[in-house]
Amino acid sequence: MTMDRAETSARIAALIEPFNKKGVAVTDATRFTDDLEFDSLTVMDFVAAIEDEFDIIISMNQQAEIENYGQLVDAVVKLQG
Amino acid sequence: MTDMLSDNETQGVTDLFSKFDPLIEMRRDLLSTGVTDPFGLVMEKVISPTVALCNGRETILLGTYNYMGMTFDPDVIAAGKQALDDFGAGTTGSRVLNGTYAGHKAVEEALCDFYDMKHAMVFSTGYQANLGIISTIAGKGDYIVLDIDSHASIWDGCKMGDAEVVPFKHNDIEAMEKRLRRIPKGAGKLVVLEGVYSMLGDIAPLKEMIAVAKKYGAMVLVDEAHSMGFIGPNGRGVAEDQGCLDDVDFVIGTFSKSVGTVGGFCVSNHPKFEIMRLVCRPYVFTASLPPSVVATATTSIRKLMTAAEKRAHLWESSRTLHKGLTDAGFQLGTDEPQSAIIAVIMPDLERGAMMWEALLHEGLYVNLARPPATPANMTLLRCSLCAEHSAEQVQQIIGMFTRAGKTAGIL
């Protein structure tokens, strides 16, 4: 069963909260490094949380292509497909 | 032609070095405090494996990875001199062309004997061994599952190849298993682990991790750079110590630590291993090690096979230093000594650099390790013991740390 984008986005939004220390309003255009100020350790923990939630792998190669929230949601939708 | 010239004149130059500005600024800030550059130390004279002359001062070396103190072993030096006389200063060639001398075959035989394995392949550095083996064996469509705290040479090997790279939390067996479980069926899998992680000096639970890797049909590569010579009944490393060396497909190692010279290697029982010599670019497209280097390595490796007493003394020193520094009030990377590396955790880079300098003034050299090389953005003073450190030197070291810790305001 393919989950729709809105549902995937809602689940990711919930996962992002503990990592969103400054309470930045997250939109599809929100960038992880520049806007959310994720460092490499935060990225690792956040990626692991998403991988566990959706039972997927987001390899480093795929992570390199993901800069903002919208791209992450799209990637997760696709990986579940 | 004139048009092109004028075009060029109007274009501003993008300085490719501007990406290094934050680091340049950070260094400037650090050095402006008057602290000695921790990455610019020069040893004017090396007196022994444990003592050198730095800034005109006799300095105890506690950050050299010279674990077994083989650098000045008389047999090792004699072998190197002989090879220099007999075979010259260098090979000027690749291992697959004119760069394989009798000495290169001899050192590979010594490695096969040391590890009791069928194949050994020697690279010009340990860095190239990881770079070459990992990038070559894991290709497009394959998956590399590796510990997040892996050495730069492992990461660079991943980056150079075309495999999907999947890291997991340091030493976390469950996190590793989850990732292995999610890999698509039929894909090739390589699990990359280290015996000893060099930043904190902690060891991996290889027995459990390798059992999980095998359950999912993965091949296993273990970097034993920081364990060779003194961990395991025969000094083969952490995998031997935990009784799982037979399940390791590839052991990566180096000559630049316990062996006391320079070079890297991979040993394996894989029946097709020899093909690596033709397909592994960091092996093919570089000159082989000089004859004197492989001769010193051969002699050193063979002596390490029977170095039980030195090994015992090194462990004794590790326990004494760990206890002494703990008792003095320092925070260490591990609760108990797990290797010959003892990492002292500093509150921040500035005080770490102050402490490093205070130790140098005391006459002690250790490694200052800072992010991004360190896990969890820690600043560390990394101590690596040598089998040639005397019990008296170890006590001296504890005294130096205690005094410097007070000078730097850490204790």
CATH architecture of the largest domain in chain B: 3-Layer(aba) Sandwich
- Strand tally of chain A: 0
CA(first)-CA(last) distance of chain A: 8 Å
| Chain-averaged pLDDT of chain B | 95
Number of strands of chain B: 16
Radius of gyration of chain B, in Å, reads 23 Å
In terms of quaternary structure, the protein is heterodimer
Any idea of the CATH topology of the largest domain in chain B? Aspartate Aminotransferase, domain 2
Task: Classify the secondary structure makeup of chain A into a structural class.
Answer: mainly alpha
Taken together, the total number of domains of chain A comes to 1
Q: From the coordinates shown, what is the CATH architecture of chain A? A: Orthogonal Bundle
Give the averaged pLDDT of chain A, no decimals: 92
**Which pair has the most extensive contact?**
A-B, 14 and 17 residues
The general outline of chain A is globular
The major β-sheet of chain B equals: 7 strands, mixed
* Radius of gyration of chain A using CA atoms only: 12 Å
CATH class of the largest domain in chain B: Alpha Beta
Decide which structural class fits the backbone of chain B. Answer: alpha/beta
End-to-end Cα distance of chain B: 69 Å
Would you kindly provide a written description of the structure presented here, covering whatever features stand out?
The complex is a heterodimer of chains A (81) and B (411). Helix content of chain A is 53%, strand content 0%. Chain A has helices at 5-16, 40-54, 60-63, 69-80. The longest helix of chain A is centred in the middle third of the chain and has 15 residues, at 40-54. The N and C termini of chain A lie close together (8 Å). By secondary structure, chain B is of the alpha/beta class. The radius of gyration of chain B is 23 Å and the shape is globular. Helix content of chain B is 41%, strand content 18%. In chain B, the strands form four sheets. A seven-stranded mixed β-sheet of chain B has the order 4-12-11-10-7-5-6, with helices on both faces. In chain B, strands 1-2-3-14 form a four-stranded mixed β-sheet. The model of chain B has no long low-confidence stretch (mean pLDDT 95). The N and C termini of chain B lie far apart (69 Å). Chain B has two domains: 34-68 and 308-407, Alpha-Beta Complex (Aspartate Aminotransferase, domain 1); 72-304, 3-Layer(aba) Sandwich (Aspartate Aminotransferase, domain 2), CATH 3.40.640. In chain B, α6 (152-160) links the parallel β5 (143-147) and β6 (164-168). Chain B has helices at residues 2-10, 21-32, 74-87, 102-115, 126-137, 152-160, 173-182, 206-215, 238-241, 276-279, 281-284, 291-304, 308-328, 349-362, 391-407, and strands at 43-48, 51-54, 57-61, 119-123, 143-147, 164-168, 189-194, 196-197, 202-203, 219-223, 250-254, 264-268, 341-346, 364-365, 367-369, 379-384. Chain A binds chain B through residues 39-41, 44, 48, 51-52, 55-57, 59-62, and chain B through 143, 148, 158, 164-169, 175, 178-179, 182-183, 372, 376-377.
